[in-house]
Amino acid sequence: MPHKCEAIVVHCMDYRLQSFINQWLEANLAKGSYDRAVMAGGVYDIYDVIRQVDIAARLHGISKVVLINHEDCGMYGMSGTEERHEEDLSKAEEKIKRLFSHLEVDTYYLNLDGMFEHK
User: Fold this and answer.
1) How far apart are CA 108 and CA 68, in angstroms?
2) Half-sphere exposure of 70 (CA within 13 A, CB side)
3) Residue 103 CA: distances (Å) to CA of 25, 28, 54, 87
4) Per-residue pLDDT tens digits for 21-76
5) For the segment 74-99, what is each residue's pLDDT rounded down to a tens digit?
6) Confidence (pTM)
7) What is the number of domains present in the chain?
8) Among candidates 34, 117, 4, which has minimal Cα distance to 69?
9) Which residues pair with residue 38 across a beta bridge?
10) What is the CATH number of the domain that holds 97?
11) Structural domain boundaries enclosing 73
């Protein structure tokens, strides 16, 4: 029987943002109720994201996916505008909902000052 948790949270590995992400998780999800998929670029590689969501859905029975991209992401380089992040988050949300229609998907853009913007 699989273990059960509420969500998977997909975010970038950038050390500058970990304390903000930790605080946000503590305030918004129950402790121990989520898996974390930490990948360079957040949703930059949607296929890696989908693979992690699939694993969390099958093994842990998640009901929610939280996607977090951030300002000044090295994976995006000069193309990492807020608009590009918003577009990539939207595409990722659409693909996840198409493949996993039972999952809720929330998308966020995290500024370097720690401010989360719901997208």
Assistant:
1) 5
2) 27
3) 18, 17, 11, 20
4) 999 999 999 998 999 999 999 999 999 999 999 999 999 999 999 999 999 999 99
5) 999 999 999 999 999 999 999 999 99
6) 0.95
7) 1
8) 117
9) 11
10) 3.40.1050.10
11) 7-118
